[in-house]
Amino acid sequence: MGGNSIGKEFVVTFFGESHGRCVGAVVDGCPSGLSLGEKDIQVELDRRRPGTSKVSSPRVELDEVEIISGTFEGFTTGAPICLVVWNRGAESTAYDIIRNKPRPGHADYPAHVKYGGFNDFRGGGRFSGRTTASYVMAGAVAEKLLSIIGVKVVAHTIEIAGIKARMIRDAERIKKQAEENLVRCADQSAAERMEKAIMKAKEEGDSVGGVVECLVEGLSAGIGEPILDSLDADFAKILFDIPAVKGVEVGLGFDAARLRGSQNNDQYAMKARRVITTSNNSGGIIGGLSNGMPLILRAAFKPSPSIALKQKTVDLQKMKETEISISGKHDPCIVPRAVPVVESAVAITLVDHLLRAGFLPKVLGVKK
Amino acid sequence: MGGNSIGKEFVVTFFGESHGRCVGAVVDGCPSGLSLGEKDIQVELDRRRPGTSKVSSPRVELDEVEIISGTFEGFTTGAPICLVVWNRGAESTAYDIIRNKPRPGHADYPAHVKYGGFNDFRGGGRFSGRTTASYVMAGAVAEKLLSIIGVKVVAHTIEIAGIKARMIRDAERIKKQAEENLVRCADQSAAERMEKAIMKAKEEGDSVGGVVECLVEGLSAGIGEPILDSLDADFAKILFDIPAVKGVEVGLGFDAARLRGSQNNDQYAMKARRVITTSNNSGGIIGGLSNGMPLILRAAFKPSPSIALKQKTVDLQKMKETEISISGKHDPCIVPRAVPVVESAVAITLVDHLLRAGFLPKVLGVKK
Amino acid sequence: MGGNSIGKEFVVTFFGESHGRCVGAVVDGCPSGLSLGEKDIQVELDRRRPGTSKVSSPRVELDEVEIISGTFEGFTTGAPICLVVWNRGAESTAYDIIRNKPRPGHADYPAHVKYGGFNDFRGGGRFSGRTTASYVMAGAVAEKLLSIIGVKVVAHTIEIAGIKARMIRDAERIKKQAEENLVRCADQSAAERMEKAIMKAKEEGDSVGGVVECLVEGLSAGIGEPILDSLDADFAKILFDIPAVKGVEVGLGFDAARLRGSQNNDQYAMKARRVITTSNNSGGIIGGLSNGMPLILRAAFKPSPSIALKQKTVDLQKMKETEISISGKHDPCIVPRAVPVVESAVAITLVDHLLRAGFLPKVLGVKK
Amino acid sequence: MGGNSIGKEFVVTFFGESHGRCVGAVVDGCPSGLSLGEKDIQVELDRRRPGTSKVSSPRVELDEVEIISGTFEGFTTGAPICLVVWNRGAESTAYDIIRNKPRPGHADYPAHVKYGGFNDFRGGGRFSGRTTASYVMAGAVAEKLLSIIGVKVVAHTIEIAGIKARMIRDAERIKKQAEENLVRCADQSAAERMEKAIMKAKEEGDSVGGVVECLVEGLSAGIGEPILDSLDADFAKILFDIPAVKGVEVGLGFDAARLRGSQNNDQYAMKARRVITTSNNSGGIIGGLSNGMPLILRAAFKPSPSIALKQKTVDLQKMKETEISISGKHDPCIVPRAVPVVESAVAITLVDHLLRAGFLPKVLGVKK
After folding, report:
1. Which of C1, C5, C9 best probes binding to B when mutated, by most B CB atoms within 10 angstroms?
2. How many Å apart are CA B117 and CA B99, to the nearest integer?
3. A361 contacts in D (CB within 8 Å)?
4. Cα–Cα distance between B73 and B69 in angstroms, integer?
5. DSSP designation for A189
6. Closest Cα partner for A149 from A324, A297, A332, A358?
7. Residue D68: is it exposed, middle or buried by C-beta count within 10 angstroms (0-12/13-18/19+)?
8. ipTM for the predicted complex
9. What's the total number of domains in chain B?
């Protein structure tokens, strides 16, 4: 049981439901002395919220964050930071139809079994994609910490509906280009085709999936722990914790399995008195530790399970087969909105490991 | 820091080095009353050890397990079970060459940085593949617990050097067929081609990688925790903790990202009064919870980084570029030996979640 | 770092400050299906809040709880329960005097050092006794769970200002008698003397301390874990986590150290087919495990450090000696208000251990 | 379940039984670069082992430690350190009498219930005082780390059989004087009377208890975490985890509850440009944080439950009342042997908090 916390030094606890009072996060272990206000978090939340483009759900979720503990006079105090977004205007009545009819591809059925039917099923409740706002709130704190030591975390869409973007591995450039289109893809030409594929699926009452890649620049070598708290393993865990993720790769990922050792090994060289590797197939992590090269992580998102098309399901009360068609304002593709969630997840785990390795101070300066 | 333990109720701690005194594991949280002797563990260790086939390293590691705590009169007592395999006959002198010359693809360099040069570099030390014996020891205990409640965990090789096996998704059949060849692949014809590819790489002083798939049958719906201790996320973590894993997928994995929602969603139906899904694209996990269908997990292993071919590296003392050629008896392909390691990893995490969900008793019967 | 969570299966995370927005608690791991509403928690909070008697602070803290996640249609859902009490009407201006002048006996000075001066010092901030409202909120959930399996947790004042109460060890009777006076002491005659001692200290601008005893009835034998998660050790931890606690005893406590083994050992006998001990010097815990007898725990509270009398302190900015006199509405004795806090602490740890031992179900029934 | 590990960054896992193969400890999270050999640990183990004086058990336990992982070329590597003492010459046959007859004051009965009778009952098994050798092994590593930053942990006997020693609060002097007598009491005159009281109890087939005080000098202010990982709470937990401890106090402890606030508050002053308190009633911990003054901790040990005198018990198989008389070589007083155990417990928790607060480096220097 338990299960809603992650991290060892930078401990993040999530709470909240899709149609309950709120979604929230407690960030425990944030160094004191970080300048932090609601607007630092709001800017990231705004990237995640729907209703901002034709490729996402037309639902309007205002998603205003409130910091209800842990800051004082504009700085973090070292005490746990509780962050809340109040749910507003969610219509729950539409959901009564799913009380006993689990939607295919959603957690409705196993949640019903696990909790003896007491789970809040409205909009998926605790299992809703809406809970990823917790990632973004906590992630915004983590990203602000990372900026202090010059570490950049940048994610972007690299594939939607089978359409792959050209490979770009420059954080600065991605950051700029990906925000120029609705799908958050740094390759504008691919982005256009992705948009079209999404709109087509939408018109047909269907949905599409995709892949998000995340780059981390500026990380020293030697971050991570061996064997059971590997850096890559901790990234994989927090990425798989994001609803809809079905695969995670580091560096070449599955393609590494198709190479020879002589092709895949990243050989060492010296550059400006620093040790580098001449390739980065490993994605910056070897033996669970960072090697000083940029990190490369990828997460595969399945197509959103909420589709208008009729699907087979069962009535859990009558234990009989039946059908369901999901109305409501759903995302035909969650990938663009997942981009800030992936960044947040990576930032949270990174700060935890940096604190564990002693690479982030526990106190950021002294208050005058 | 820390980082050598995993699990919340079934807590496993690993220790040991490749060329130190031993590799070991402490299993804490095992229910009392499980019949357990050294031979239960030895049979699994024997599947992992090298020297047993031409496709693995010709090193002879006897790998005899000793249970040094936690059992009494043939049963587990509820106390922590410490399991040790003593290292024998390891020649360390050959390794002095790598003291300051990190081997490409190994953890040597980031470990050197992280530990200020104090890490035991011999054979990779704490980061050696040899430490996976700890997985197998702890996994053998977990698998014995699972057998009590009729849960089967079966892994097998499905790809080596780009050669893919036909898809087989029947635990019983896989179990039988995979042990009939040296690469642990249930598809005999693919197995033959894989063996050849390995031998060819070996002759050329090179290595190949591959993919292991793991099937879990007999699991109830509702196992797992939402959001931050998802069942799939915990599997991803422990699988990525295995050295050389670069990718993990659940169900269709990355391929799910290329489907429409209407294709990917597993629809519900009734069968023999039980709720089932008519397809299993999700790999038995939805929203971080098991849905009662078989689990399907995959891990991609990079080619073994230990190759005879000359590679570029740096001298960390002189901070100068140099070269290295790794002699010694190495595995041209670690995938076949990784099969029992993957099973162990999955079993360890499964037992932890079953205990957390209350699906495994804390005491197995009463002693007469 | 971290440090604001406790428990392994019933994981409680506290947040909030004395003069910030709120004090709160996240309860993660509560079984689903528990009937829970705000009034279940409010009744316990009302016992803790000040302004209700002449022996406590005349500050009026309304302390209304809000459940902002984790319940649905009147029942717990299995999701984390976030509980919040909003701070109202706290005047912070009075506290500016302590920004650089630590109050003797308070955490002001070490907190200033630890957090580089960024800590919220108003009213002690994160270290304020006000944060014990978090204990009471989470404890109310735990106590409701315990009532399901017939376990009673009852605390009462047994000593104030050196005045000791007659020993009463009957939960029912204590529960009734202790609520009949302002100091929550089941011995009415001692209670009167305690009240007088408090009023006298108050008049003199001073404060007094005391001892709270907690009884647990209805617990089975065999709850707890050996050696490093002993039941008594976990009680000691959570009790010492309550501000102002300086000592904890189980059973005879320090007096056991003055007895012979033959006097102190609790001998076994049979009663109504159950194994009992003929005395209960151990306080119901042996080797870290419950033995089926009532638990007896005691916590010593120092006198409240907030006193009107002038005291010596230092100016942390000028690094010079100076003086301080604490105005404001303070408790001359916190012991009566600590009684529900002690009950809550004990209940929280008990539920955690009952879940770990499998003595509490993860789902309480099935929803119709 | 689980329950045999403690610590967040310096994570210690204990295993082993009184009459099994061994007692052991895994120390995970020790910084790399600490010079560590078996003799560093042996010297502390020798202080704990029996057979060395007339006031302890005449059993001869050689207790030779073996470091089986985590060091290389005389230094810690950053990998988990596994430490083992092999059990030798334990006669288990004498214990068959207690298989179904629980000894009063021992964990036999609740352990029997908890583990369904599968527990190793010989000599108390997992619950034996012998398992405190694990504390001492792990503690020796912690104490060596503390010595690097000039922190001294010194415990000594301050009371046995009701005989109290004069108060001495000087670590250097205690260290020297306490080792000059068999009871480890720094007050020689009290020590003589204590010895006599022990010998008298021994002759009468009985046992006596006592109190150990521990002093920590050289600690900075600001170590610890607020509310749920208070420094004092973590000390209380690890001390109560030691078998036979029934009470823990910090500073004045229960006596603080009898003082006025004006008497108990430690007022601040400047001394050599440092902030000090003019008294140390708090025992160096305020609000869960160290305040820079010496730490003062006390643990009460009950009289050893193993006594030769006949006692009442029950036969758990027949569920009938019966009697038991414990033969064998037992300690008439465990307090002198508990002194190094208390030091170890305190050192383990201190290192954990120092690492969490960033006061101990993760790497001790760079290897040449």
Report:
1. C9
2. 9
3. 358
4. 12
5. H
6. A358
7. buried
8. 0.97
9. 1
Residue C36 lies in a domain: yes
pLDDT of res. A216: 98
CA A231-A235-A241 angle, 5° bins: 150
Instruction: Identify whether C342 is part of a domain.
Output: yes
Q: What mean pLDDT do residues B285-309 have? A: 97
In terms of DSSP H, where are the helices of chain D? Answer: 38-48, 108-114, 132-148, 171-178, 188-203, 231-240, 261-264, 335-356
Q: How many CB atoms lie within 10 A of CB A175?
A: 16
Is B243 a member of any domain? yes
The three-state secondary structure class of A296 is: strand
Q: Which of C206, C299, C192, C307 is nearest to C250 (CA)?
A: C299
Whether A307 and A207 have beta carbons less than 8 Å apart is answered as yes
Report CB contact under 8 Å: C11, A28: no
CB atoms D69 and B5 under 8 Å: no
Helix-strand-coil percent breakdown of chain B, rounded to 5? 30, 25, 45
**Token pair 């009937």: residue:** C35
Pull the structure tokens for residue A212: 């998000």
Give A-chain residues touching D361 at CB under 8 angstroms. Answer: 358
Chain B residues in contact with C9 (beta carbon < 8 A): 8-9, 356
CATH number at residue A352: 3.60.150.10
Task: In whole angstroms, give the CA distance from residue A230 to residue A283.
Answer: 14
Q: Is residue C365 part of a domain?
A: no
Question: Whats the size of chain D, residue-wise?
Answer: 368
Q: What is the mean pLDDT of each run of 10 residues along chain A (368 residues)?
A: 93 97 98 98 89 69 92 98 90 78 96 97 94 97 97 98 97 95 97 97 96 98 95 98 98 98 98 97 98 98 95 96 86 96 98 97 89
Instruction: State the pairing for strand pair B75-76/B163-164.
Output: unpaired
Provide the pLDDT for residue B85: 97
The DSSP secondary structure of C18-54, one letter per residue, reads SSSSEEEEEEESPPBT-B--HHHHHHHHHHH-SSSST
**pLDDT confidence tier of residue C59, bands split at 50, 70 and 90:** low
Which tokens sit at D79?
Answer: 């990998």
Give the structural domain span for D292: 5-356
C93 Cβ contact partners less than 8 Å away, ≥ 6 residues apart:
none
Q: Which helix (H) or strand (E) holds A341?
A: helix A335-356
Geometric angle at alpha carbon A128, from A127 and A131, rounded to 5°: 95
Closest residue by Cα to residue B107 from B90, B130, B84: B130
- Residue B354 DSSP one-character state: H
